[in-house]
Amino acid sequence: MENETKLCPLDENVIEECVDLFIATFSKEPWNDVYESRKQVFTFFENHINNNYFVGYVLKENNTVIALSIGTKKPWIKGMEYYIDQFCVKTNFQGRGVGSEFLFLIETDIKKKGMNAIILNTVKGFPSESFYLKNGFQLLEETVFLAK
Predict the structure, then answer these.
(1) For 63-91, how does the pLDDT look when each residue is reduced to its tens digit (9 = 90+)?
(2) Quick one: which of 59, 56, 51, 22 has its CA closest to 38?
(3) Number of other residues whose CB lies within 10 A of the CB of residue 102
(4) What span is annotated as the signal peptide, if there is one (predicted)?
(5) Is the CB of residue 73 less than 8 Å from the CB of residue 80?
(6) Domain extent for 107
(7) Which of 45, 60, 38, 37 is nearest to 15 (CA)?
(8) How does residue 2 score in pLDDT terms, banded at 50, 70 and 90?
(9) 143 within some domain
(10) Is this structure's pTM higher than 0.70?
């Protein structure tokens, strides 16, 4: 029997699994993120979920979260866009097409919800950059990302 994957909303029902997946993924290479506590990451998820423009997804395989996308519905001149703030796939599922399938399912769902584009930023030279390019994203050369 083949394992069944299903796109589901990221909500309070899956927040614990998502926190664990997030920490497990981003505390490893190439990100090596360090968190003050699990509570810090839990609060990060709560803050997103409580945002009026929040749109989040999980991909489940046999009722277990194997990927997540944290994002927002973003107004733009040409309509609403889906801005992906965080996206990750469980380490042992990476390189097997799961992330590409997840993006395809998200794109299909956001179109049903009236959003017309997916936008995101990632770290130049990281594996995520080639993953997004492979999945049809375009590098916007004229864009500069600034922080203060």
Answers:
(1) 999 999 999 999 999 999 999 999 999 99
(2) 22
(3) 24
(4) none
(5) yes
(6) 5-134
(7) 45
(8) low
(9) no
(10) yes
Q: What is the 3-state secondary structure (H, E, C) of the chain?
A: CCCCEEEEECCHHHHHHHHHHHHHHHCCCCCCCCCCCHHHHHHHHHHHHCCCCEEEEEEEECCEEEEEEEEEEEEECCEEEEEEEEEEECHHHCCCCHHHHHHHHHHHHHHHCCEEEEEECCCCCCHHHHHHHHCCCCCCCCCCCCCC
Q: And the tokens for 121?
A: 């930023």
In DSSP terms, 56 is beta-bridged to 70
Q: Tell me whether residue 142 is in a domain.
A: no
CB atoms within 10 A of CB 87: 22
| DSSP state letter for 96 | T
Count of domains observed in the chain: 1
Q: How many CB atoms lie within 10 A of CB 51?
A: 13
Query: Rounded to whole angstroms, how far apart are CA atoms 9 and 100?
Result: 18
**Is residue 95 one of the residues assigned to a domain?**
yes
CATH at 88: 3.40.630.30
